[in-house]
Amino acid sequence: MFFLVGVLLLLIVLGFPVCFSIALTSLLYILKEGMVLVTIPQRMVAGIDTFVFLAVPFFILAGNLMNTGGITKRIFRFANSLVGFIPGGLGHANVVASIIFAGMSGAAIADAGGLGTIEIEAMKEQGYDADFSAAVTAASSTIGPIFPPSIPMILFGAMAGVSVGKLFLAGAVPGILMGLALMVMIYIYSKIRRYPVSRKLDLREIFASLKEAVLPLFTPVIILGGILTGIFTPTEAAIVTAVYSFILGFVVYREIRLADIPEILLKSALTTTVVLFIISTSSIYGWLLCNEQVPQTVAKTLFTITSNPQLILLILVGFLLVIGCFIETAAALIILVPVLAPITTNLGIDPIHFGLVMVFALMLGLNTPPVGIVLYTISDIAKIKFESVVSATLPFLIPLFIVLLLVSLLPQLALFLPNSMMP
After folding, report:
1. Is there a smaller number of Cβ atoms within 10 Å at the N or the C end of the chain?
2. Do 137 and 101 touch, CB atoms closer than 8 A?
3. Strand spans (E) along 274-389
4. Residue 1 included in any domain
């Protein structure tokens, strides 16, 4: 166990990409133990040979289609018409747009890369500081993997063997709470810095923007409605979302041209390749951890501290927050779910609740260095230094952390919807 953990941490500190650090650590361990090398390709293939994982490339494709097809700018206009009259209006519109977009793509990077470009440019034009605009965009993008649908929830569901539909529903209330918490923070900042309202409350503008955005707004209704009624599975919902996004962008809005399609497909394929490569290499490492009986060792260690389920959950939250700073979310889930899911289940913690808490904690790592891929994305979009994005974003993690604690201590915030709608 110490070899697996120690070598991985050493390689990450030395600056190796996380997926290569995981793969190299696994290879060195297999050589050290004299195991057959054929184990590597076998475990890599087995790690991604799951029907649920088919949803990943289609949700990624859907996000890219929305960004190219003019859906994101329509969402932002509608969000701005709803909350633009509040002090710091465009900041609030940023958050509301992220909640709406989260109901379509399920990925933080899709939010940051698509909506972020529109949001940051609009905020700068209205006199918002560049670092504040970047921080709000980075923090709000973390709602994407919490509010349904969610690519990380799909990964957790596949690894833990729990209902992906229930995991989707579990993120609805926490996702809204995240948005409200960020809006409180934005309001405080806006009062202190005297940021403007972006527009007056105008019912005609609300209806006009709603008319433009009504078809995209149907996306989460289609996804959740189809899953709840049994018309399609979460995996099939991803395909439906991609097809629906293409129809909107190509047929209805006509902003996707035939010439754009190869680039959209290539971009989606590249992103999917990276995600699935991380999953496949992480599956080897996770298998080796289980082979070393790490779950049993971790359980014994935790029980020496306390046997209180809530306290153990809070300890795990702290552990996951640290892990999220160093390991990409997909890799962390593939490695840790086989270790932690059995422990929490044996403690009587609902697996749907734990899945939501685990994904939430790891998502905060997207906004913390050194891995923090959202921070790098926003830094590039906003054209400001990475260090400036980090320092500006850190205060916005406080309200998100408070919501994480509330969800951890009050399971019904996550379980109410799945228990009532999918008993």
Report:
1. C
2. no
3. none
4. no
Q: Kindly tell me the sign of the dihedral angle through the C-alpha atoms of 64, 151, 115, 378.
A: negative
Report pLDDT for 185: 94
Give Rg (Cα) of the chain: 21
3-state secondary structure string, the chain?
CHHHHHHHHHHHHCCCCHHHHHHHHHHHHHHHCCCCCCHHHHHHHHHHCCHHHHHHHHHHHHHHHHHHCCHHHHHHHHHHHHHCCCCCHHHHHHHHHHHHHHCCCCCHHHHHHHHHHHHHHHHHHCCCCHHHHHHHHHHHHCCCCCCCCCHHHHHHHHHHCCCHHHHHHHCHHHHHHHHHHHHHHHHHHHHHHCCCCCCCCCHHHHHHHHHHHHHHHHHHHHHHHHHHHCCCCHHHHHHHHHHHHHHHHHHHCCCCCHHHHHHHHHHHHHHHHHHHHHHHHHHHHHHHHHHCCHHHHHHHHHHHHCCCHHHHHHHHHHHHHHHHHHCCHHHHHHHHHHHHHHHHHHCCCCHHHHHHHHHHHHHHHHHCCCCCHHHHHHHHHHCCCHHHHHHHHHHHHHHHHHHHHHHHHCCHHHHHHHHHHCC
Q: How far apart, in whole angstroms, are the C-alpha atoms of residue 317 and residue 347?
A: 15
| 310 has a pLDDT exceeding 70 | yes
Q: What pLDDT was estimated at residue 261?
A: 92
Q: How confident is the model at residue 380 (pLDDT cuts 50, 70, 90)?
A: confident
Q: What is the pLDDT of residues 285-301, one digit of tens each?
A: 878 877 777 766 776 77
Residue 258 lies in a domain: yes
- Could you tell me if residue 45 is inside a domain? yes
The pLDDT score that the predictor gives to residue 174 is: 95
Q: What pLDDT sits at residue 295?
A: 66
Amino acid at 358: M
What is the rounded CA–CA span in Å between residue 244 and residue 160? 30
Question: Distance between CA 79 and CA 89 in Å, rounded?
Answer: 10
**pLDDT digit string, tens, across residues 58-88:** 888 888 888 788 888 888 889 888 888 888 8
User: How many domains is the chain partitioned into structurally?
Assistant: 1
Give the residue from 69, 91, 93 showing the smallest Cα distance to 79: 93
**What proportion of the chain, given as a percentage, has pLDDT over 70?**
95
Domain around 386: 7-421
CA distance 122 to 133: 9
